[in-house]
């Protein structure tokens, strides 16, 4: 179980670091994608910071399970809000990734609780 928790947390951490890095680029296609969901460009740096902190907390959670659980639960909220933004904007083409990340985050939260 512990190795599965490490693997899931590591995969999520890599995925959200990639997402955060894209947000920090402010490339036109990235900005347009978030704008379609109703997210203003001025939020991108803050959202990237949240994701970087969550990634670090997930990795630290390998050694401190409560921190990993809290980070994963926070990510569930983050991605639930992302799904809400996409649904509200009728941007169904881009709703799958936050749903996948939300499910992975729920898995990580559960694994951090039971693996230690």
Which key phrases capture this entry?
mainly alpha; 5 helices; 80% helix
Question: What does this 3D model show about the protein?
Answer:
By secondary structure, the protein is mainly alpha-helical. It is built from five helices and no strands.
Spans with pLDDT under 50 lasting ≥5 residues?
Answer: none
SSE order: HHHHH
Number of helices: 5
Shape: elongated
Helix content, binned percent = over 70%
Report the biggest beta sheet as strand number plus sense, adding barrel if it closes.
none
Number of strands: 0
Computed structural class: mainly alpha
End-to-end distance: 8 Å
How much of the polypeptide forms β-strand, as a percent range?
under 5%
Rounded to an integer in angstroms, the radius of gyration calculated over CA atoms is 14 Å
Please describe the topology of this protein:
Elements: H1 2-25, H2 28-36, H3 44-60, H4 65-88, H5 96-114
Helix pairs in contact: 1-3, 1-5, 3-4, 4-5
TL;DR of this structure?
By secondary structure, this protein is mainly alpha-helical. The chain has five helices and no strands.
